[in-house]
Design the sequence.
């Protein structure tokens, strides 16, 4: 795209978008409006390097952008007009901050002379998102001289950098424009002409390069307690890394070296690369409901990788132990909601273990060694020599419990013929095509995934919004992940989907396929698990909130394919293979109260069977 010199705003917006293009921006989501006209035009003319996608609803658009950023690991830009439009980005901004996802929020604004005077569509947009952005600034009013254009270039470069480093997150640029907003000549024609003669794009953009993080550390020191303890566990918590296989390799190497079991959250890629790790404990929540086992399995050492799993049972158990805890995560945030004896090692697990161990793990896996290499190999990523760790009875206890409970879970769920919510996550874990991206909605779906998602080697990629744990933007985020991606799946309840039905408006812009597995229990099933469920009224009206929606009609309104699933066999058939394009809803109608009763009767007994 050539730089536009028809008016000051066009030049300003051209420099901004071209700077982002050179930095590596590939997607810009544009919401309609007048004040953002210069930005919308500039991004629309940036194709094919930058894909500009117009989305009507700002909240939906922001979550779609969030989904794209989750899938690519690169910032996605989102543009809106002045006034309340930008306020609709707020839930996605919060989620981006809490889940560390890079977003560039570009809110157009009125110039200073039109503020605080009841000019239409004008609000105070400075620090609109409070302290949630990694960085925020208001750009100067557009100008034509080279010094100001260099300022714009540098500010945009810094905004991009702050969206990625030291920790990814949202960045907000508030951008005021005076009229004329369309690319028609303004009074600065002579100045613009002079600037055009001075402007040489090759030189101006020559030093803009895509930034990359610092090289990984190869030999971070390993705490000596890890190497001398026989009662240690590794918790593979909530994580959606860009390179899941390498992430799982690093965890597997750590586990094989220390001979520690790996308690793997359902929202961790570890469960989907089970061949890398012979000591995965996927049923820890169910195991720890057995008080005798919980006491026997109390650890001395806890190594937590990533954020804490969802399970309140696990959290309570950790609080009751006297174990010393290490938390491995490069975040600059406090990730310990238990306020325990925690040492935060602010590096990634890949950095901690060291790059050379990734290839070694791969070799050992292919030869079936499962980490049982030569004595002393596990000490290579430590800064000082220690004796090798031998398999212990503690590890054996965990693996025996896992095998027993896993058999009980699998047998129980295999025999269920009726449509019960808990079986859906279990079935998905074994049915989806390899490497399928799946977005897990909040409330009961994430919990059923933690309880029942079965380890496999399918490499399924799980995505989720567990930063703020809300149901905002569920559908839009999933569509953002699936856009230009492998055919994808979303697992959601009815209320989470209804909360974001405007996401279906993205249908005509969406490239790819998304299958929505809809659990329709006509209300908020998560609240059935809480003490308030015993009090009705007001439970049904104010907590469960049944909506009585005919989803077939709703889908028909948006031109989305719908099918009511009445058997497990039909669900499996429809999930593998997946279509290559479009959006469809596979609805399973379940009984909310019966499902709750099933969980209450069964979750505590699997470790007793």
Sequence:
């Amino acid at each position: 795209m050539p730089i536009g010199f028809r008016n000051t705003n066009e030049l300003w917006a051209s420099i901004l978008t071209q700077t982002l293009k050179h930095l590596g921006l590939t997607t810009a989501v544009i919401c309609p409006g007048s004040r953002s006209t210069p930005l919308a035009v500039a991004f629309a003319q940036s194709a094919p390097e930058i894909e500009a996608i117009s989305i009507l609803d700002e909240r939906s658009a922001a979550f779609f952008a969030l989904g794209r950023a989750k899938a690519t690991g690169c910032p996605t830009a989102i543009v809106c007009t002045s006034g309340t439009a930008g306020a609709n980005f707020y839930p996605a901004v919060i989620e981006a901050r809490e889940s560390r996802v890079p977003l560039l929020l570009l809110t157009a604004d009125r110039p200073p002379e039109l503020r605080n005077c009841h000019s239409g569509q004008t609000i105070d947009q400075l620090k609109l998102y409070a302290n949630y952005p990694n960085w925020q600034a208001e750009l100067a009013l557009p100008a034509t001289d080279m010094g100001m254009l260099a300022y714009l270039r540098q500010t945009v470069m810094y905004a991009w950098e702050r969206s990625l480093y030291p920790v990814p997150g949202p960045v907000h640029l508030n951008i005021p424009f005076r009229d004329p907003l369309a690319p028609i000549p303004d009074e600065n024609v002579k100045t613009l002409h002079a600037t055009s003669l001075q402007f040489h794009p090759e030189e101006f953009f020559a030093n803009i390069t895509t930034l990359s993080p610092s090289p990984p550390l190869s030999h971070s020191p390993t705490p000596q307690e890890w190497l001398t303890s026989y009662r240690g566990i590794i918790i593979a918590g909530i994580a959606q890394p860009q390179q899941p296989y390498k992430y799982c390799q690093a965890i597997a190497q750590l586990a094989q070296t220390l001979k520690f079991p790996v308690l793997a959250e359902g929202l961790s890629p570890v469960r989907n690369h089970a061949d890398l790790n012979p000591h995965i404990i996927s049923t820890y929540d169910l195991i720890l409901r057995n008080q005798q086992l919980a006491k026997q399995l109390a650890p001395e050492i806890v190594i937590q990788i990533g954020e804490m799993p969802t399970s309140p049972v696990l959290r309570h158990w950790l609080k009751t132990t006297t174990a010393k805890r290490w938390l491995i995560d490069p975040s600059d945030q406090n990730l310990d909601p238990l306020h325990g004896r925690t040492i935060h090692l602010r590096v990634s697990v890949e950095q901690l273990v060291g790059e050379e161990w990734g290839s070694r793990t791969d070799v050992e896996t292919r030869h079936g060694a499962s980490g049982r290499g030569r004595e002393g190999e596990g000490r290579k990523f430590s800064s000082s020599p220690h004796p090798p760790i031998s398999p212990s009875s503690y590890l054996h206890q965990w693996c025996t419990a896992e095998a027993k409970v896993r058999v009980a879970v699998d047998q129980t769920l295999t025999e269920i013929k009726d449509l019960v919510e808990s079986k859906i996550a279990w079935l998905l874990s074994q049915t989806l095509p390899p490497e399928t991206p799946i977005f897990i909605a909040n409330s009961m779906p994430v919990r059923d995934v933690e309880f029942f998602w079965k380890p496999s080697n399918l490499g399924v990629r799980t995505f989720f919004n567990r930063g703020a744990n809300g149901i905002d933007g569920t559908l839009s985020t999933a569509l953002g992940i699936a856009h230009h991606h492998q055919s994808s799946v979303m697992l959601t309840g009815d209320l989470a989907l209804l909360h974001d039905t405007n996401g279906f408006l993205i249908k005509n812009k969406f490239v790819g396929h998304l299958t929505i597995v809809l659990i329709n229990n006509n209300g908020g099933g998560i609240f059935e698990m809480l003490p308030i469920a015993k009090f009705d009224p007001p439970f049904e009206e104010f907590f469960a909130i049944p909506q009585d929606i005919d989803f077939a009609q709703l889908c028909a309104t948006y031109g989305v394919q719908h099918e009511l699933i009445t058997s497990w066999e039909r669900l499996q058939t429809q999930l593998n293979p997946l279509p290559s394009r479009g959006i469809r809803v596979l609805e399973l109608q379940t009984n909310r109260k019966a499902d709750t009763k099933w969980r209450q009767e069964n979750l505590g007994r699997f470790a007793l069977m």
About this structure: Confidence is low (pLDDT under 50) at residues 213-220, 355-389. Residues 44 and 136 are 25 Å apart (CA to CA).
